[in-house]
Design goal:
Layout (H helix, E strand, L loop, with lengths): L1 H5 L20 H10 L1 H27 L2 H11 L1 H6 L2 H8 L3 H9 L2
Protein name: Cyclic nucleotide-binding domain-containing protein
Organism: Flavivirga aquatica
Length: about 110
């Protein structure tokens, strides 16, 4: 979002794990769409609000929960997703080592 709003390269990247369709819009074209379709701005505001809620929840994981709790919560909330993602990526997301993730999975 920062990259898009400020129109500068991002230091983050997204890696698709499954076949994906990516849509692209320039900031200029989005602004034109907001002017021409006022309801679109409301839709994007709602999307942004939900994105902020997701970021807050993720931050809460790292502030309030220990590694084991983060793993348990992740698995219970995203069970089917967690079965499709390589374990090293889950470990990275949870900010734990793959070895520790393996230990958590073994003791579950």
């Amino acid at each position: 979002m920062e990259s898009f709003i400020l129109e500068k390269p991002s230091h983050l990247f997204i890696q698709a794990l499954e076949d994906t369709t990516v849509l692209l819009i320039t900031k200029e074209n989005l602004e034109l769409a907001y002017v021409n379709i006022p309801k679109l701005e409301r839709v994007f505001r709602i999307i942004t609000e939900n994105m902020l809620i997701a970021i807050e929840r993720k931050n809460e994981y790292y502030i309030k929960m220990g590694s084991k709790e983060r793993y348990t919560s992740f698995i219970s909330e995203l069970k089917t997703f967690s079965q499709r993602v390589p374990q090293y990526m889950i470990a990275s997301y949870l900010q734990i080592t793959p070895e520790y993730l393996s230990e958590l999975r073994k003791n579950k």
